[in-house]
Each structure stands twice: as structure tokens, then as C-alpha cells.
Amino acid sequence: MTAEAIDDISPLTGQYAERLDAPNPALPLGTPRGLDELVADGQVRPSAALLEEALTRFGTIGLQTRRRTVERLIADDGITYGAGTDAGGPRPWQLDPLPFILDAAEWATLERGLEQRARLLDALFRDLVGPNRLLTERIIPAEIIAAHPGFLLPAHGITPPTTRAIPATATDLARTPDGWTVVSDRTQSPSGAGYAMANRRIIARAMEGIHRKANLRRLRGWFDLVQIGIHDAAPPTVEDVPRVVLLTPGPGSETAFDQGMLSTLLGHPLAQSDDLVMRGGRLWLRTMGRLEAVDVVLRRVDANWCDSLDLLASSRLGVPGLVAAARRGTVAVVNPLRAAILENPGLFPFQDAIARTLLGEELQLSVPDTWWCGDATSRQHVLANLGRLIIKPLARSRGEHHLLGWQLSTAQQAELADRIQAEPWSWVGQEPITTSTAPLVTAHGLQPRNIVLRAFGMAVGETYHFLPGGLARIASAPDAFSVTNASGASAKDVWVLDGDDATPARVDLAALARARTMPSATRLPGLTPRTASNLYWLGRYAERAEVAARLLLVADNLVEDHHTRSGTPGHAAMQVVLEAISAVTTALPGFTGSDAEARLADPLPVLEKLLLDERVAGGVAHGVQKASSTALQVREVLSMNTPSVLSRLQRVLAEAREEESIPVQLTSERILDSLLALAGITAESLVRDATWAFLDAGRRMERAQSIVRLLRNTIAITRSPVVEGQVVEAVLRVGDSLITHRRRQAAGVGPAQPAASALDILVVDSTNPRSVAFQLDHLAAALAHAPDIALTERLQELRRSVREVDVDALIGGERLDLVDTLIGLEQELRAFSDAMESTHFSSQAPQSSFAVAELSGGRR
After folding, report:
1. How many CB atoms lie within 10 A of CB 41?
2. Could you report the per-residue pLDDT of 821-844, keeping only the tens digit for each?
3. What is the pTM of this model?
4. Cβ–Cβ contacts within 10 Å for residue 279, how many?
């Protein structure tokens, strides 16, 4: 079993993506021995009291209810795991409601061992990229290093930070009868700390009574230390607050949520390849109207994919020239590009000797018995015991996975033996170990499962600090050997009880104070074109869904009242609104074109499809789905309430699909409630900066275009006064302006003719939040946060043309001039949107290696 992270090829991009569910076990075969979280050496653990209280207080039914609560909260918070191309997209995060509890004494002992291990990894890395004492003195065989792709010879010559060469560490551990044992080290790009914080936020709500009562070590302070640790890693020439970016493969990464959460907690922007560029030997972040120098790259892209010039030529995930910039010392990469060498399981047999040589200490945390097959004696032992050992390749990046000897047939064992004989230096054999268990809440009650723990460390100065607890993973089945997401494993929130016996490694108050009193930067990092584009389209998709929901609400009401009354004014008005749905939403199937007569005769199935079918572009469900997926790409800059509103939208649609008779009006009203909540978050929770500006700009542009299309396909066509009166009322209901119209008509204010009044309210009236004029005024206010002279002048002309609309002149006669005016206005709005996108959202051309080489030194 394992909770190891691997670098595997993502089906979406062909990239190496960070995973939490690697099959690289060093854990036990067989049945769990019981609830070892409660008992140790025949004695009840000190941490068991809280767990016992939870079991007694809630009982089986109560805990299963808490499990459903956890699932709902996970959906509300948008916590996912898995690549975007997985079947059904990213999967909801799995979290058990019962925490994994460590008492203060046990954590203090484990923390001391983790601190020593972090120092060992740091010293080992410095030696391997520096004096090579371990190799020259033959303490470790050179083949173990040379055969590992993580050594990355093209990255030779990059000077590590002066404090700690490996700033961030992650260690996977299992509790055995002899204490905590190291399963693996994660130094390439340690992931999971964001999930650990998300777990705490969920369990604190789902198990509120128990959580409030517990005296726990809190997690937030550690992320403050991460902040200062990242700053410490900056090049020594940086005098001000370092500019940091978190390099991500993108929203298709399996740990995209973890990356977004870390970005939110630290305040550093997520950056994809297209967001970064090399200029003059430096790395720059492309933001709105300017380039910003980058001092530190906190990477979540595997090293080999970080630079297509010096490393993997086919990569589109990194920045050509990054290796040269790091070697030049203009940017620091955390963790270093060659850090994956420390994940090499071939180092395990030599770790005692490494610790004595580099640290002068004995290891506090043991590792599983491991044999490197490059040694003849060890190879003989592995081959003789192939049927009971775990066989691992040295490098996970080769696409090889571990092999469980006891699961192989005789023929498969023979084939594996031949492979080992052919390349003995590339393999190790490892002894399975027996791990403790913890209770898992299942549909059948509590059941014991194997559990592993990932601990996270960060160097601040010379000292490593550790997230209290970490990320626990618990197996899904009683006999599960692997603790993986693929096998259905769940996470557990890890509680560390606070005690009175503070240890030296426990917390550095001076470092924490330093983290919280960093000097102020002169300006916030700007938005990248990619982020601005996603915000703009998030606003548009949300408004598109709202317009569609309003149309369906009004249309279904008309269908309910007039569908069976053919030949009446109400039936005629109903038909006008149904046909307008097709024109405004452009959704197919609609109520125009071929077979339109049949659909008008039985409109309800079409309305239901427009409401609930995600495949219908322009429909409500499609707009909600597009808004949700777009929000995932920029979650780090949005209000933390946004995911819960989007989750509620998805829940409303899912519940409606389960209904035998779909309630179109009720569902549309519930959809509108949530969409208005989303608009309220934008209006009331976002600071008036570029993030708000582009989100609001998208909403304003979509609303203006929708209103124009609605008017062009309804009141711009002359009809009998009775029919027109009902059409006007329906249009004003869609535009949420019917009350205003009635009050003005009753008071004799504004145009007397209903169609003229509607046109005045929905186009010209700049005080109406639903009018075209209002949208353009607020679009101008939003774009003031990203000024462009050409766009400003173009928008001023557009606003002037709307203000000069002569309602009385356009509404008379056949209204052909009104049709032309609305068509022209819609074209101008579309053209302005295109101009804004080309100005602010442009992507850079694929960065070619020769261009970067020229900037870095003239090589072609």
C-alpha cells in the first residue's frame, strides 16, 4: 500500500502531473490488526479520548450523517482531485469525518525525526550537486545517481540557496509496531498541504462540537512560515519583497485544487507557461500592460518539463531558458530542478551510512529493508525472494510502477527476473511492512483500515518547520494493499493535540513574527491575460445562464396560461417569446427553423432541454457548467464563497433531473436565486481592482448584447396593440423592469406607448441596472482598471450612440429603423468585445528554443 505521489503522464496534456496516489508501496500485505489508533502496546492512547467521545456522541447513524455532511461541504467548497479529462472530469475529494489524532508527545517525537530527515535530505542534495563526497568515498554507488533521470545533468551548475538547498519537504510515513517508518520522500514538488488545510476547514464544520472542544495545534501559522521560507530562497540580489509565482501545469492537473488553495493561502499568483516569458536573461510575468520580474518560482511542474530549451524539447508546460536563468542566479526555483534525485529508492539501503557521514547522527526514523540490485549479493537476495518482495524501479518518471512479487505469476516473475538481470542498477527490492490502522466510517459502520501520513516541512533560515499533522490517507478496503485515489482511498484530517511540553522544533516565534511583518511591496501583482480572460468569460457565462433562466421562467408561465388557447392574443405573445428564446440564446433545438411548428405545438420538452441539458449551448445548464469550469481556472482570485454558490446551482439542476415531471418555473426561480447570489458576491465581496473589473465587464457585455437581441426579436416587430401589450410585459419581466414600467405608466412619466416605454427603460435609461446604457456606463468604470486609449474612445462613442437613441422616432410605423438600430448596436457590441479581447487577452506565440537562446547568449 502507498500514499506516494508520482509523476505520471496525464491523459489530457501528455505531461508529467503530480499525483497523490502512486503505486510505490512499502506497506503491509494482509489484514489490519485492529483499531491501532486507539490502542498501542495494550494501552489506550492519550489521543483516544476525543475519538472515543465522537464515537459515543454520534454513534453509527450519526457518523454516517456526518459523512454525508462532509460530502456536501466538499461539493460546496469545490474540492476535487483528478485530471480534467478523467471520466466525468475531476472527482470529488474523499474525506472521512473522523480525524486521525496524534497526541503532543507522539507528534513531538515524530517532528524531531522529520527535522533530522529534512536536514539529511538537504545535506545529501548539497553533496550530490557539490563536493560529491559520498560518491568519491564510495559510500553510495555512482550508478544509483547516474541511472536516475532526476539528476538532470543539463541543470548542473545552479547554485542552491545559501540557507537550505531543499526548502520544501514532504515525507510519507507509516506507523508500525516499532514506531514511525519512512515510506518515501517527496522533494520534486511536494503537494498536498492545500488539501490538508481544506480537510481542516471541512471537519471543523462537520464535527464542530468535537473540534471546538479539542485543544489542537492550528495550521495557518505554518503557511506564514512557508511564505518567509519562499522569500528566503530568493536570489541574494533581491532587495525588496520577492515576486513569487506558482508554476502550474494548469487546471487539467490532478492536484489543481491543491495548487489553487496554496495560491490562495500564500497570495502568490498561479502561472502557466503562457503567463511567463524570458527577456534579457530574466523571467517575467506577463500582466495587463506590463511585464513583472519574477524572483522565485514555486513549481508544481516536474523538472524535466520546466524548460524546453535545456530539458524536454517537446514540453509546453515550462519556460524556455529557465535553467539558464536559474544558473545565472536571476531566479530561484523551489524546489531545485534536480531535487527529484532524493526520491530515489536506491538510496534507502545506504541511508544509515549517509546520515553518519553527513550529519554524524543515527537515523531517528527507520526505512523499510531495501536491497539495491546493482550489488551482486543484494540482487541474489531479491531474485531468491521475488515472490514476497516489492520490486521498484529507481525512477518513477520512466513510466514504471512498483510490482508486488506475490501477485505475479510464475511466468511474470521469470520475466521480471530477466529484466533485473539485464539492468540490475535500475531496480530495488523492498520488504513489506506492517502498519497500524484507523477507523473509517462506511455504509456498514466503522471498519479498520490501513493508514499512511504525509508530513510537510519548510525551511526558514536553517530550521525546518512542519505542518502540525499533515495529510492522512486511509485505505478503502480491508485487504487493500495500496492506499491510492484509484482504489478509492479517503483522506483524514490530522489533529495534533497541543501540549505543555514545547520542543525546540515546534515553533519559531521569531520566524513567525518575521513572516507577518514583511516589508510592503509597492504594488500588487497584475492579472495575467489568461486570468483576465477567464474572469471576463466567467461573468459572461453566469449572465448568459441568468438570461436563459429568466426567458424560460417567463416562457413557461405563458405556456402554462395560453398553450391550449390557440388564436388568442396570449397564445400569440407566447409564440413570440418562444421564438425569441432561440434568437437570444442561439440554443438548438429552438423554436425557429425546421420542425419549429411541431416544437411550438409541444414546447415543454424543448424548455426542459434548454433548462437541464448541459450539451445545449446557450441553455441554462450549459451556462452553469461553463461558469463552473471557468471559475475552477481562477479560483485563487475569487471569493471563497463562490464555489458554494456554483455547487448549489449544480445541485438544483441535478435535483430537477430526478423529478418525474420537471418543474421548469420552480427550477428557474431556484437557479435565479443562486445566480443573483453569485452576482452579489461580485458586487459586495470583491475589491474594486482588475479582478472585479474583468468579471464585471463580462457580465455587462453579455447583458447588453442579450437585451439588444431580445428587443430586436420582440418589440421591434409591429403587432396588434393587444398582442404587443402582452409581449412588452413579457419582455419587461425578462428584463426585471416590469414594476418600473407600471409605476411610470401610472404616474404619466416617460413614453405613454408600452413599446416605447420598454425601449426607453431597457436601452436609454442609465439609472436602470438592466438597461444597455447602464451596462456601458459600468463597463467604462470597470475598464478604467485596465486603461487603453483606443478602447476608451471606442466605448465613449458607443455610449454616445445609445444616449442619442430617439425612442419616439424609432417606435413608430413599421419600425424598420428600430430593427436597423438594434442590429447595428449588437454588431458594435460584438466588435467592441472582440477588440477588448485582442487588446487584453492575447496569448503569446509558442516560445521557440532558438528565440530564448538568443536572449540568453546568442546561440542558435
Report:
1. 6
2. 999 999 999 999 999 999 999 888
3. 0.89
4. 12
